[in-house]
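Posting for a labmate who doesn't have an account.
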Amino acid sequence: MTRRRGAPSGDPVASVISALSSTVDTPRRARAEVLSAAPAAVTVRELRKTFRLPHRKYSTFKERALHPFSSSTYDQLHAVDGVSFTIRQGEFFGIVGRNGSGKSTLLKCLAEIYERDSGESAIEGRLSPFIELGVGFNLDLTARDNVIINAVMLGLSRREARRRFDEIIAFAELEEFLDLKLKNYSSGMSVRLAFSVAVQVDADVLLVDEVLAVGDAAFQQKCFDQFNRLKAAGKTIIFVTHDMGAVERFCDRAMLMERGAIHAIGEPHEIARAYNELNFGRLVHADVESGRYGDQVACEIDDAWFESRGERVSAIEQGQALTIVLRVRFRQALEEPIFAAALRNEVGHTVFSTSTAWRGVRTGSFAPDDLAEIRIDLETWFAPSHYKLTPSVARDGGGEDALDMREDLVSLLVHSTQVTGGVVDLPHVYKVQRL
């Protein structure tokens, strides 16, 4: 059933850092307070969806005639198993989980694409699902015709669809391909067109399910900018993704699903950490209390520290040269391992992240008992704050197969004589001219 509706006060540097943390965290805290007082936009209670998986599938009538009773047995897949949660109006809510955890099934139940077995959900306002975009497209029609038809199917009047036509095409950046049939479009072009149509619907609640995965980087950023505008306008967005960076960047809260059930609901960084624990749990050991992931069988991070002018440091003045150092010991032979590091400030924002894979660095071959030292040189233009370093080593590939990751292993205090309130204080020059 769905219804639509800090540090010691005597330390001057610590005082500055504490003041900065309060300043930086104020917008997030204020937004959290506003959202906590907002009425519910989406309420889900004990929602369940189960699929039957027959032990035998027929492909011909002959098989059905020869084995009339063999399909009477089946397994049950509890895709969504007693899920309950509430999302406030205006909230950007992330849903994450491994493949097969039930995220997409949950969204399809909310959008009434699937009929749930039991439970209920209440959605306040108009719903726009960004799920399987372009389902209503006719591949033998041109983009021009499909835009009007799809917009009407999504709830716009024919007059309104025509009025917004130019804006839809401009957002999709497909002006040159208006009269090309959709069967000649690439998958990325089709998604761009479908997204551009769907975003024009005046909805209060948006369901977004990994629809941007095939878009190019520029269009993905354009879509994220649009989500930010919708968020600022008070729209409620439910965002399913595997991208933990996007979860931490956009979401007010997030929910982690596993085997159809809710594993955790909380702050984006907490959920991203829990996701890493679950994701690596199949392959590697995770020590949740210490924040260490990976079985350390092939290699391990022995140590990590910060250096300035050849000396180890735990505090540094803003603008000085800084080196991040990782020391890794190998127990097995490895080819081209990926070394990475990330810095987070006191409020949990990732302010710097780097990887040898991203920088195109060839790391070479390592044999058992080899010891490697990785040095990352940069200038400290971060705002005054405490920063924590998370180093990691992964197998060659996409970087997801973590061999060892030590979250918040070592900390660094960046201090300055002034506090601007920014996340970074980049060097810059003013030029003032009288005209």
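Reply:
Got it, the structure tokens are right above this. Residues 97 and 433 are 55 Å apart (CA to CA).
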